[in-house]
């Protein structure tokens, strides 16, 4: 198997990232996302680093995984949580260490930043495979449930 590399996403990745967002939303939540909206939203992150950053995992020059990191300020900790979001691993690359490499990269970068106090993510309550993966990587369920009012997707 070819070597896996992790890099920051750039403007040339927008279409691929957005396409993978749509595939992930359809697979995990049965939601068909609007292509133009996902392209605009993805481009917004690439153009404005204060929103977050994408990491891309490549093998043999092909994108096999990706995730988004966004930021949440914690006044309790006087620090920033990095949130892992929009995780996608190509179906043929699953169970080959792609997510682990992305995760380890995020945690390593987060630990190197003085103002980062932790890494969080949310996972669908029925996605037991992902929950096992996250637990195996040292993550544990938090004390919180997520509540929302979604003005776009309902």
TrEMBL record:
InterPro entries: Acyl_CoA_acyltransferase (IPR016181), Bact_Acetyltransf (IPR050832), GNAT_dom (IPR000182)
Lineage top rank: taxon: Bacteria
Gene3D superfamilies cross-referenced by the UniProt entry: 3.40.630.30
Family annotation (Pfam families): Acetyltransf_1
Span of domain N-acetyltransferase: 12-154
Coiled-coil annotated spans: none
A GO molecular function held by the record: acyltransferase activity, transferring groups other than amino-acyl groups
Keywords, in A-Z order: Acyltransferase, Transferase
UniProt xrefs under PANTHER family: AMINOALKYLPHOSPHONATE N-ACETYLTRANSFERASE-RELATED, AMINOALKYLPHOSPHONATE N-ACETYLTRANSFERASE-RELATED-RELATED
Name of the protein in question: GNAT family N-acetyltransferase
Organism: Polyangium spumosum
């Amino acid at each position: 198997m070819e070597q896996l590399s992790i890099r920051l996403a750039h403007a040339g990745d927008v279409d691929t990232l957005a396409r993978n967002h749509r595939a992930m939303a359809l697979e995990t939540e049965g939601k068909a996302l609007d292509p133009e909206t996902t392209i605009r939203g993805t481009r917004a992150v690439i153009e404005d680093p204060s929103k977050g950053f994408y990491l891309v995992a490549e093998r043999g020059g092909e994108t096999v995984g990706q995730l988004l990191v966004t930021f949440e300020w914690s006044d309790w900790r006087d620090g920033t949580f990095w949130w892992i979001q929009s995780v996608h691993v190509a179906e043929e690359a699953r169970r080959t260490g792609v997510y682990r490499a992305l995760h380890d990269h995020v945690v390593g970068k987060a630990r190197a930043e003085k103002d980062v106090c932790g890494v969080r993510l949310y996972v669908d309550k029925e996605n037991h495979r992902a929950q096992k993966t996250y637990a195996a990587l040292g993550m544990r369920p938090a004390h919180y449930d997520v509540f929302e009012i979604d003005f776009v997707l309902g």
